[in-house]
Amino acid sequence: MPTTAKKGEILEIRIIVQHDMESGFRHTETGQRVPRDIIRDFLCVYNGVEVFRVELHPAMGANPLIIFSTVATESGTLEFKWSGDNGYASSTSSKLTVT
Amino acid sequence: MSLTRRVFVISAAAASVLPAVKAFATVDDATQAVGKILGNQKAKAGRVTLEIPPLVENGNLVTMKVAVESPMTQADYVRAIHIVAEGNPLPNVVSFYLSHRAGLAAITTRIRLGDSQRVRAIAQMSDGSFWQGDAATLVTLAACTEV
């Protein structure tokens, strides 16, 4: 995502995370089901306010990519948080300067 | 000797009739999933555009774009967009929750499709109304089939 913006500008944010997103529908060579292990939630928080949220299901592709947008309202930090099965949690953040 | 072989053949035949793991949902499952989203309301056709390639080589990673016409102001914005697949083992694919802070109700992501099918997008507006759009696609290689 851009690091600077004018106030009121709509920013496009592209985020991707490395994760197999094991759907729970695959089988091993011996015929056993591989259990589900996916990311279930994504959250974008802008200066402490939730601005975008996603609920992911097994039909989301591996290494989930999401392209969304948000309005540049003020300078600050955008945090991006992923959470899912088996206690998976991952986050990253980006600073934004709004003029 | 022949008795045990007959027993073996019969039990093998019985075992092969046991229901396999459900491979694909039916359109009814998807309708039920949509029903849960809508409650007792109906979704009007329009305002929602769902773009999926009409022919997909590999169902494991299908780029999908959904856009909803909306001013995205505090008074009138898209609250949620739900994607439901009619031909996957589980109908729900993903749900996006937005607010007026989004600016644009347009999201791109990559999904898995298990079969050629119609995929539906249901959008809920801030005034509680539902709008829907859909896209049909042909899938050459189903997702989640490789070991």
Report on the structure:
The complex is a heterodimer of chains A (99) and B (147). Chain A has one domain (4-26, 35-98): Immunoglobulins (Immunoglobulin-like), CATH 2.60.40.10. The model of chain A has no long low-confidence stretch (mean pLDDT 95). With 99 residues, chain A is mostly beta strands. Helices cover 0% and strands 53% of the residues of chain A. Mean pLDDT of chain B is 86; it is low at 13-21. The A-B interface holds A 10-11, 23, 25-29, 33, 46, 49, 51-62, 64-71, 73 and B 21, 60-62, 85, 88-90, 92-104, 106-114, 143-147.
Helix-and-strand structural type of chain A: mainly beta
**Mind telling me the CATH superfamily name of chain A?**
Immunoglobulins
Fill in the CATH topology of chain A.
Answer: Immunoglobulin-like
The CATH architecture of chain B can be given as Sandwich
Tally of separate domains of chain A: 1
The share of residues in helices of chain A is: under 10%
Order of helices and strands of chain B: HHEEEEEEEEE
Q: Spans of chain A with pLDDT under 50 lasting ≥5 residues?
A: none
Compute the separation of the termini of chain B in Å: 39 Å
> CATH first level of chain B: which class?
Mainly Beta
What is the 3D form of chain B?
elongated
Query: Would you tell me the overall average pLDDT of chain A?
Result: 95
Per the principal axes of the C-alpha atoms, what is the gross shape of chain A?
A: elongated
The two chains with the largest interface, and their residue counts, are:
A-B, 32 and 35 residues
Series of secondary-structure elements of chain A, N-terminal to C-terminal: EEEEEEE
Number of domains of chain B: 1
Largest sheet features of chain A: 5 strands, mixed
Q: What distance separates the N and C termini of chain A?
A: 16 Å
**How do the strands line up in the largest sheet of chain A?**
1-7-6-3-4
How many beta strands in the DSSP annotation of chain A?
Answer: 7
